[in-house]
Amino acid sequence: MSHTRIPYENLKALNKPFEEAFKSKFNDFLNSGWYILGNEVSEFEKEFANYHNEQYVVGVANGLDALILSLKCCNFKKGDEVIVPSNTYIASILAILQCDLVPVFVEPNMETYNIDPKKIEEAITSKTVAIMVVHLYGQCCEMDPIIKLTQQHDLKIVEDCAQAHGAEYKGKPTGTFGDYGCFSFYPTKNLGALGDAGAIICKTEEDYVKLRQLRNYGSEKKYHNGIIGYNSRLDEVQASFLRVKLPYLNDINNHKKALASIYQSNLNHNFIKPVIDSNFNNVYHIYNIRHKERDRLKIYLSENNIDTEIHYPVAPHKQKALKQLNNLSYPISEEIHATTLSLPCSFAHTADDIYKVVEILNQFN
Ligand SMILES: *Cc1c(COP(=O)(O)O)cnc(C)c1O
């Protein structure tokens, strides 16, 4: 146990390369005296749109709000059904519930951990209005069959891209497949702010205008309220920090991909590793492995000075807050939740850190 502790994540170290630029941005901000919805927000929106080769981006307060405002934008009726994967972060489900809609769970594919396109059709009813895809762990969902289904059944697509900034399916980035691409810039995400922040990519001018109203009291013109809105604006300071980091998003992703490939080529067969498929450009927001003795493995690593996380220990339908769903059964999801372990794989980690983790993992028995 000669090495120093390897943390799961280290936000201070992760942001260290950007510190001088952040300070200079903050100085400009202080000097400007303009604190809400200023130039930094609108420039970030343009730059984030350009990154995706898209036209319309609306900055919002966080990732959960990005999902909620997108669903609100659709004017669905109370009780309408939204298909969502059974293994996702709780935010995806909360957004649906907060809009008085009904989440209908579909199991993931065991190899991609993302919603299984083959199981979607049987979940579609006369009340289904949308599919919320979640690009989990940094890997884009298999979008071709999903898009085909939404065309056949006239459904909206809301993409939860909180874990997959810059990830691609067949060369096209997440957030550009659906009607709404919803992003979180929570500090740990691949593109992370220094606080809460989020954004939505949308496809039509009509939605663009409406989302801008929804985030700002339903108002486009000050004190004139066209619709019932919220206060969910992207913060000006966070936008300025995001503008510093966006040009390095591909570097951040490439760093995480390089670390993931060290695990992929060096971990022994004791562990179930992510399945690589050339159609998918995985940006490894989370690098996970699976093991039937996950809890013992986590303790073993901790005893050997390596921190890990579990994404996630409890499936959404088993959460106390979602009592009405507790009796449902999603065996694939439950199996993932019982066996998955997330390994250190941050922009702040070095290749040496990862080789150390590999060495210790390969001695587990
Ligand atoms: C982080 C995350 C969110 C929520 O983002 P916030 O900015 O924390 O609101 C939503 N969905 C997924 C899958 C996430 O990982």
Describe what is shown at a glance.
The protein folds into two domains: 13-247, Aspartate Aminotransferase, domain 2; 248-361, Alpha-Beta Complex (Aspartate Aminotransferase, domain 1). The longest helix is centred in the C-terminal third of the chain and has 18 residues, at 249-266.
What does this structure look like?
- The chain has 2 domains: 13-247, Aspartate Aminotransferase, domain 2, CATH 3.40.640.10; 248-361, Alpha-Beta Complex (Aspartate Aminotransferase, domain 1), CATH 3.90.1150.
- It is of the alpha/beta class.
- The longest helix is centred in the C-terminal third of the chain and has 18 residues, at 249-266.
- Helix 4 (63-73) runs parallel beside helix 5.
- 36% of the residues lie in helices and 15% in strands.
- The protein is built from 12 helices and 14 strands.
- Bound molecules: pyridoxal-5'-phosphate.
- Pyridoxal-5'-phosphate binds next to helix 4 and helix 5.
List descriptors.
single chain, 365 residues, alpha/beta, Aspartate Aminotransferase, domain 2, Aspartate Aminotransferase, domain 1, 2 domains, seven-stranded mixed sheet, three-stranded antiparallel sheet, 14 strands, 15% strand, globular, binds pyridoxal-5'-phosphate
The third-level CATH topology of the largest domain is Aspartate Aminotransferase, domain 2
Number of strand elements: 14
- Sheet with most strands: 7 strands, mixed
As for the number of domains, it is 2
Read across the widest sheet, the strand sequence of neighbours is: 1-9-8-5-4-2-3
Fraction of residues in helices? 25-40%
Q: How would you name the CATH homologous superfamily of the largest domain? A: Type I PLP-dependent aspartate aminotransferase-like (Major domain)
**Content-based structural category:** alpha/beta
SSE string, helix = H, strand = E? Answer: HHHEHEHEEHEEEEEHEEHHEEHHEH
Mean pLDDT reading: 97
User: Approximately how much beta-strand content do the residues carry?
Assistant: 15-25%
> How big is the Rg?
21 Å
The termini sit apart by 17 Å
Poorly predicted regions are none
Cofactors and ligands = pyridoxal-5'-phosphate
- From the spread of the alpha carbons, the general shape counts as globular
